[in-house]
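dumping this here before i forget
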Amino acid sequence: MSGADGEVPVLIVGGGPVGLTARALLARWGVPALLVEKHAELSPFPRSRLVNVRSMEIFRGLGLADRITAAAFAPEYGRARFRDTLYDRDFAAAAMVGVDAPVPESPVIGVLTSQDRLEPALLAAAGAPPRFGVELTGLAEEPDAVVAELLDRRSGAHARVRARYVIAADGAHSTVRELLAVGTTGPGAMGDFTTVVFDADLGRWSARQPAGVYFTAHGSFGPVHPEGGWLWFGPTPGEGARADWAGLVSRALGPGADVRADVRRVQHWVMHAFVAERFRHGRILLAGDAAHAIPPIGGLGMNTGIADVHNLCWKLAGAVRGWAGPGLLDTYAAERQPVAHRTLRQAVDNARLMVQVQERRRAQLRGGASARDRIELPWSERYFAQLGLVLGAVYRSTAVLDGDGDGAGDDPQAGGEATGPDYVPTTRPGHRMPHLRLADGRSTLDACGEWFTLFTPDPAPWQRQAAARWPVRVEALPPEHAHGCAPGPQGALLVRPDGHIGARLREPSRNGTLLRHTVTTITGAAPS
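structure:
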């Protein structure tokens, strides 16, 4: 432990939703991790508010879905409404598909909840205490570890921690990314914005038409918690910190509203849009906003980060516990970086669509239309739902095998890319395993976890094939799903711990080595 004050398999830098999810996932794998967060406590701001259906599937696997849902808004808040002012009628509205009601493609429903309600649930999901008020100030790489310099911001004490791996989940202004001199691509800073959290009685304009967000010409409004509280966000005015925020919000409610906002908190922030040029630097891996900053329209940023660590943590567990080769961690960037680029393009498109809505509305009013008239939104509900992006991400790497499990994926639709706006379930390698009901009522996704899952209509011959040191479970596919899923009467789908299909296997080999060979290839481990 040369020159270090402590040692840990994984150091997580950043205590937001992404870092906390990584901590919970690693705990499920039995991998000790230390999380450090420079702020003294969890964020008191609502911030990211949409937990999409894929993230809820991940949280369901962690046993957190019920707790998160209990603190969230009811499904009828899963809508976006467009108004001239908050007290006006809707001139357009759009459903948040997968949040406003269940979708047949998933066993769960997404929720609208504030980040200050989500983070405590994630914090409670692992026992190892995080260290709040501790800032990372330096990194030194060694052949088999990373030594992190830490500063306790309360006491001023310095410490050094030696970690086998580091997850950098420390936000858009990532200290780790800066220390590593990792560049970014994309538009960059897109403007200064302010969020104002306030109390006011706005029920007369919202109770009968609930929504997660109300877009107006004077900024956007949203409810904070089911029991009360509101937020306004919009471009930061010229006077900045000297602004009369209570007056500004009251005016933004519209003339004649006669409501005075009781301001509780004000947060200034910069809207960033970029993707890091590299997601891995040796034993250090970037995730969440440290790897990609996504504009908030569409609620994609935090959810993309949660999917990052869901992809990453099983690979780290394999590296730490010895059943994966060092090359498996290379597949993290190969799979997640293209998804980040696709997601950034979608978020920028979403922002452009929002501008089109306001332009259409202004043109309508200039043309003499009544304020009561509605407009047609420049997208379909399925488009804005983005289920193809949320559930349809496709991975292409050496951890995805084509054909009978004997080579790297070469599906022309595969790649760490996402499909179009609509989601079409498929059992092609690289895709998320479709949600199907097993004989005991569980979802196929519930059968996935801290192990590889082999789905087959004929479990017996596969159960006799030893998978050596890898965690593998065999699950029977009901007859009604066998034809559409398995490549043959004794065929099988091998699903990775992150729920993505790693290989399609036509039949068990006579010498009993096919399963072991396939898992060995996916994990990059040395043959046993």
